[in-house]
Amino acid sequence: MRAVLLSGGIALLISLLGTRFAIRQFTQWGYGQEIRDDGPTTHHTKRGTPTMGGVVIILAALIGYFTAKLITRDMPSASALLLLFLFFGMGLVGFLDDFIKISKQRSLGLRSKAKMVGQTVIGVIFGVLALSPMLEDHRGKTPASDHISFTRDVTSFALPTVVVILLIWLVVIASSNAVNLTDGLDGLATGACVMVFGAYTLVNIWQNNQWCGQTDISYGKCYEVRDPLDLAIIAAAITGACFGFLWWNASPAQIFMGDTGSLALGSALAGFAILTRTEMLLIILGGLFVVETLSVVLQVSFFKLTKGRRVFRIAPIHHHFEMLGWEEVTVVIRFWIITGLCVAAGLGVFYAEWVAGT
């Protein structure tokens, strides 16, 4: 537990101070955000606000985690290194996207196909390694499961490896793009991520306390997770990093996380869901991200089917409410409330399953 507190506290401090430094440096270098022309007109005043703040979130989380491990004199686990690879790798794809936007002075960065290729390479490598026998622990458990999972594995049969890798890729792509779509208002995605990563910190701590590797199995249904405590340390580090960044990202935002941050955070959520065997639970915990994604899918599909008609004035849905006249800060706070309710519901389901099973 000491490592969990250390990683979260160190990441918070580094993010809080480092973001202030990044704002000054990125402003000097001209790393300003470009704004989509078809968005709300109130956003045009944000043009030029420093972006790529996700670099600070990633660095703060990494430093927080590894410093905590150094202080506690503990080696990183296979699950932790895999998750950090996914987190950093997707952040790199987002960084390239942001850098092209800045250098080309346009609101679109990497071509959609190029971004998808980058996400696919990182996601598939993660999936292959997560199922690799080389990363089995002393009990023969790999970081990822080959079963369908909700709050734990729920199927008695194992899926073919190719199918599991495909599902892992799908979860990674969906989650990273969902957070990316949500990152459209000051503090919206950052605040939502604080709550969901905080939830995964609690989930991992609980799984560690009821872990099959150290719990008497006759007591009840323990959790077959490879490295729950180490995952809790990373979750706390990312939570702290997001908290520190939110200080500067809240309305009026002095810096944006950019695709560097949103893709990294979204992929990390997918990584936690996969490595904790709670893939389907992520749908509840990250309910806001699901709604944001569905609003875009519905808008595009309806537009194509009806040859020009729309369900929303603009998608993602947070912009729709702005177009209806809601103040930006009102949309953000109400969407944070929705996230809080989703997280409470998800944690409630997670705990209720344990109580029902014991």
Cα separation of the termini:
25 Å
Main beta sheet, described? none
Number of DSSP helical runs: 12
What share of the residues does DSSP label as strand, in percent? under 5%
Rg, Cα atoms, Å: 20 Å
Global shape: globular
Order of helices and strands: HHHHHHHHHHHH
Tally the structural domains: 1
Q: Please mark out the parts with pLDDT under 50 across 5 or more consecutive residues, or reply none.
A: none
Q: Into which percent range does the helicity of residues fall?
A: 55-70%
> How many DSSP-defined strands?
0
Derived structural class = mainly alpha
| Overall mean confidence score, pLDDT | 90
Could you characterize what this model shows?
By secondary structure, the protein is mainly α. It has one domain (2-285). Helix content is 66%, strand content 0%. It is built from 12 helices and no strands. It has helices spanning 2-29, 54-71, 78-104, 112-130, 161-182, 188-209, 228-249, 258-275, 282-285, 287-305, 317-323, 328-357. Helix 3 packs antiparallel against helix 8 (258-275). It is globular and about 55 Å long. The chain starts with a helix and ends with a helix.
